[in-house]
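WARN no homologs supplied; continuing
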Amino acid sequence: MSASEHPNRQELARELLLYKMQEYSQDGFCASWLHGLEWELWEAAEPPNAPAENPFIFNTSRECRQLAEIAQGWWVFEDQTQPDTESPVFVSLERWQQTRSAGNRPPIDPLEQL
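OK structure emitted
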């Protein structure tokens, strides 16, 4: 087997990031992809969020963001570049930052808060 057949560090981080995000959604909410998951996990490690408030999401968020740095991207469920996709899409960190800067966070579904 040649070296080119093995995934590199960036590809491994990308796949592990997807796994961690889906695992958080499945374990915490019994959903394969929680509505707004990409936003929740990204924001949970930002100030003023504190580890004492919810250490599980804070730690998961930090781990996911570290993996995102290695992978150079973030998984999102819908992206304008691939609007017909019904599964998570990997976007560059630059694209993710543009989405965040544009304030394109999906509205919270009131039924999900029950």
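The chain has a mean pLDDT of 84.
OK
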